[in-house]
Structure prediction request, 850 residues.
Amino acid sequence: MPQSPVLRAAYRARAAAADLAPLPRAAKDDVLLAIADALEVRTREIVEANAEDVAKAEEAGTSEAIIDRLTLTPERVRAIAADVRDVVRLPDPVGEVVRGSTLPNGLELRQVRVPLGVVGIIYEGRPNVTVDAAALCLKSGNAVLLRGSSSAYKSNVALVTVLRDAVGGAGLPADAVQLVPGESRESALELMRARGQVDVLIPRGGAGLIRTVVEQSTVPVIETGTGNCHVYVDEHADVDLAVDLLVNSKAQRPSVCNAAETVLVHQAVADAFLPRALRALKEAGVTVHGDEAWAKAGAAAGVEVVPVTMDDWDTEYLSYDIAAGVVPSLDYAVQHIRTWSSGHTEAIVTRDTAAARRFVAHVDSAAVMVNASTRFTDGAEFGFGAEIGISTQKLHARGPMGLPELTSTKYVVTGDGHLKGGPIP
Amino acid sequence: MPQSPVLRAAYRARAAAADLAPLPRAAKDDVLLAIADALEVRTREIVEANAEDVAKAEEAGTSEAIIDRLTLTPERVRAIAADVRDVVRLPDPVGEVVRGSTLPNGLELRQVRVPLGVVGIIYEGRPNVTVDAAALCLKSGNAVLLRGSSSAYKSNVALVTVLRDAVGGAGLPADAVQLVPGESRESALELMRARGQVDVLIPRGGAGLIRTVVEQSTVPVIETGTGNCHVYVDEHADVDLAVDLLVNSKAQRPSVCNAAETVLVHQAVADAFLPRALRALKEAGVTVHGDEAWAKAGAAAGVEVVPVTMDDWDTEYLSYDIAAGVVPSLDYAVQHIRTWSSGHTEAIVTRDTAAARRFVAHVDSAAVMVNASTRFTDGAEFGFGAEIGISTQKLHARGPMGLPELTSTKYVVTGDGHLKGGPIP
Prediction:
């Protein structure tokens, strides 16, 4: 057994993962139902523990938005339990045969989905992530190491206690769900260096957290979440539709990663589009950070336009702000997007099939929308049922990550005593 | 433009990758055919450059096996060109629709294969890897940064010159294929830290090289190659078949990663199996490093058995040696394998379907063989045509990696002006 508490937790998680991997769906669904029931039965102890975290955050003068994300009410605990029951209804990815064939020598080859093993989640002060992540990991046969924010420590301890009791009560190893011991930065670093013990780390939170994990981790990481998303209004766009789509992409819920942060407009359609877009954005409460063309249109329309800077092109506002430029061509828009995008979601508005094909082919992001709002990049919208995050990297998973993205595969090869270089048996 | 030569190369590779990504198959196949032709036409300059590397290696007293791997003859260059033509015949993974559906709101969702972008290969003194890796990367629409061994530097310069001339001659950016500038350790380290510029690093070589890349790299890495493979002879094994399968797994070509390194035998079949296995292994030139049961059987059969140590269980011999133990049960064998295996390939020999199912379910390796030699874990044997390596990690790719494993995916979503939360258009 290793000395450090974090490595000991990882070691126990590995042992639990070995027990979880071969479980059939029914056994995993039973555990999830037991968890949902236990959350409801033990709501009071969860809410009481959470109240201590909230009181501490209020004393520390934490902002209202962050306290809101931290707070658990009986209604919210019920909603979390309902989310767990939704995971029960999702198909089990484990055991799916991804490809298979009979080889020329008669060997039967099958590539089968298997759990990843031990999944580490590093996240910030949202206690609902504790349960969501555990439910998705258990359903996909993985053990999970949860490393939440110290601001939610008491809430997480209470939630993980309920989870572990339910897992243990169902006859499975409680160590399939563990809170990483210690609230210190060192314990997070230890988790990031536990290569060989932890199969993947998924950071969920702000850009700073994700950068730290990517730089420090020797465990493979899946980057999630940063969304500097673009809407490009093509010269062949329907202007009305483009205005609606821009406002929806930006303002329907600006605080999330799939909200638009930049709009680029083909110069051929600028005269028609800019005045109407400015009025509609103003009505939606959005401040435009625009280039000269936007500034001029703003002056003419009586709408204030803040001068755009290089920093604006690089910014994920997550607020009622948008960077705005006019471009001479679709290719110029693509080049701008390739330069500044975080690779999450970009949309084109056009009636021209050739323009749509060219945009889709040349933009290199997790999701490309043609005449649809950027806000649709989402596991639930895509029909995946639940998501553990939205990957903005290219390896293993890209875009919304559902249950299949929490699996690996294994080749199973069956023969009759087949020898390499030998006769076919 | 960045200051460092390595980062400048990565920057140019990114630009080239943007041009390669949307290319149709025909354009990529034409480049590969031009490369194959150029390799044959310019064989002389390649072999001459290689002769300088070989002379230097001979002066340095390099072992014959390593010099053999380094050496290029006109025949070997022709074989390399033939391998490139084989890649032409493989289907293009780019553009494959991996999944797709029409969402309830009418949005059309497609998940499409796209190139990874810039692939870095760090490898040792085999100049054929230079061309193999470049061909596979180009076919899958990726730019490639090649970082070979300094012992093959002149050969690699000559080969990459031929490759770049052929790529440029076909009207594509020559920077799609680049040798990483500099032979120093620092240049390799810079490549490993070029996260954001390089999409994935694939080390090909010995365990030391792979460990360094895994530990130093901030670029995502795919671990390849280490194979501490096991053969388990079950109590329900056909003894004749088990002996043949063990000898084939161990001795058919001991220097490769899918050769067996340990045999575990169920005690119920040990009396029947051990004497015959010992004689067959001796005949094949294999030294057995055995536990007490094997030692006793060796003494009785007049075959020398070296006492096995903990280190032996952990060793990828790549030679005519095998570690050997007798185990009380299938579960004990599985536990041994989970403890010591590198996660490459394990085989069970049994006539019992329940034992086969249990072994397959509980062994956590890239490939599990039932009554087949471990030697079959191979891209060519699996029908993938060519392989860039055999991944022993769980993220992104596991087992033999063909062209699809050199791709990512992108979601393309097409609508008629769909707004989140809005009416269906």
